[in-house]
Design brief:
By secondary structure, the chain is of the alpha/beta class. The protein is about 35% helix and about 20% strand. The protein has a 10-stranded mixed β-sheet with strand order 9-6-7-8-10-2-11-12-1-18, sandwiched between helices. The chain has a 5-stranded mixed β-sheet with strand order 28-29-30-31-32, with helices on both faces. Helix 22 links the parallel strand 30 and strand 31. Helix 3 crosses helix 6 and helix 10 packs across helix 13. The radius of gyration is 32 Å and the shape is globular. About 35% of the residues are buried. About 5% of the residues have low confidence.
Length: about 750
Amino acid sequence: MSERYAKCIIFDYSYKYFYGDGYGKDYNIINLPDDSDEMKRNIYLTACLMSYYQQKKLYLAQESEYVPFNIENPLFVFVGASVNAVRTERGRKVSDVVDILLFFRDFVANTAVSTANIERIISGNTGLLDSRNRDIFRNSFPYLTAVGMAPAAMYADILKTVFNCGSPGSIFHIENLRGISGEIRLRLGENEPFGVINVGDDSALLNLCADNGFDTDSIDFSDSLFQGITKPNSTINLLIGSKKFTEGWNCWRVSTMGLMNVGRSEGSEIIQLFGRGVRLKGCKISLKRSSFYKKDFPETAVPKHIGILETLNIYGVRADYMKQFKEFLENEGVPSEKGQPLVLKMPVIRNKAYKKSGLYSLRVKGNADFKKSAAKPFLHFEAGLPVITLDCYSKVQFESSQKRSTGEVTKNVAVLHPEHFAFLDYEAIYSELQRYKREKARYNVNITRQDVRTLLQNNQWYRLLIPEDELIVRSFEDYKRFDKLAVTLLAKYFDRFYYAEQNRWESQVVGYDLVPMDDDNENFLNEEKDEYSISIDETAENETAILWIRKVIEEVEKAKKEKRMPNFANPRQGDMEVISIPAHLYNPLLYLADGNVGIGISPVALNESESKFVKALQQYINVHTADFANKEIYLIRNRSKKGIGFFDDAGFYPDFILWLIDGGKQFITFIDPHGMAREGISSSKVGLYNHLKTDIESSLTVSSVSLTSFILSPTKYSDLSDKSATAEEWNTNHVLFMDDSDYIEKLFAGIKG
């Protein structure tokens, strides 16, 4: 034994190779970092329960077929960070273990809600999305889908299969086992126990459960349920505890694992528990997954859906260990669904010629105090403000050893209707908005109760991205959710309204000053140290793209050393493109196609219409070289919230700033190329641009500077979905259509005209 142990130490068989050679289970690791939305939380935990139910039902249906593969009877393990450390959660004094028990009790007691949640989960419409906007549970229950049970029948079968209970409405019993230290059993009605809690201080936990309305008792018992979990006749499907059983516990049954409020300090223990969960006996005690065993022995008949039982599902709720767990996987070199993230840095080449020309930028004059000096407006609907968007889809952290084929979710767009207003608590909503106003110290805006009602009953100023099911009114409890939606919407609108009023006052009353452009301007990527950060999943599918990005970086670095513009033999690869334009104050510019979520670029890349404008501008300059012989042209991609902005929350942070210097006069032009698919352009937007010319220019202190501004629309007015602008407004020289071949020529004519 000593010799064998010594060899194991010397020849370290790390998890990367262990998994890669087919040993142990596959895994799905999911974490809900924010569980403040109780409806989403219940759906998530119900999906966790259903993952176990799918494994258990499959095992019971095909147990004889799995015998050769040594598949064990599935076990659901739920771990909390603390057993008796009490906190207030949703108005109740609970600990992590009590929180877990409350979910199971509510699932059993609230038949209608649980059935509705099951229906949403099976349909793949949970509103819980991963980083690529895919519903996390779509296509996650292939066996349950194949069985084809109705949601109500599935709920009843979960009670029978998981909770050992044949009828709804049974009392949830929590019973301390006298004579068995640290064990509490769980059962419904008079049925066999379905679960056991294994903790240190069992009496304290029992008292806490009693305080939360559970039916509790202490009974004499002689056999340990925990020790009997490994026995073939065990009725225990659920094991709950803190971390007591993570060490020195030998069980092959663990198939689904829940983690409640587990922090980074428990990371190493959770990884240890993960190691116990992924162990697999395999066919003929090979320890291998069936797909790998079949490679060695092709004649092996592999049962359908066995992969479900050869996968460990881990569900975290506020489980902050997730980052540490990913670091563990990365250090081990374990393959995951996304591959290992690769971050590449691309430098930029500065165009320093502008310093000799004395380019100007703008800023608000003086130290005007909007709160003290301006009139105090009442909160009201203002047609000119951009529409508020509230995304109610939750993000879930996801890591898997398997590929996912699920497509991106098309988010449901909706507004609130009369049935949602029927029982809103307007007084509470008004109080919350007043509290938000005080918190932001915006005492110069008046809010009345009627303002709140009037705004909410007008759906022109917002849109909700929310699953349809979350707008269905099933009980009075749903109005708590609608109250929260209303408060969140009103707070977002209040922000936008406030800044619109502030910026309008500043521009009309205060005005703007010209200030020299210099290297300290945030447009110059100072925060990023003059470089882009490009992240891409390091997978086989991305090998070509990664190789291309490395070549681009190599060329930019070389050009920077040689003090020249970069020259790219192949400027585009797939959805990404590099663009060099000498007039721009730094190069290259990066373009990334809309919808590509596999590549991340910071600062944000150009979109389709912005890329089209930059290339059209450069082409025009190249063709009309003689026209620009005695002129200087400079361009910069204006960074949102960091560059030059006017009416920032009212919708005007121009995408580009263009300087034309001609005969001692400097023309500063603000340019917005807009994609109609992303954002409607209304008459108010045109009005803001016209406002620049009439109000802002009049306040400038340097007469040799002239301001102009343009919307560049890729779509003709007749094709626009947003037709709130009149034909006369669209026919001003402030709006140019990018599908006109001469739109750049019109742009320059408008600058000087």
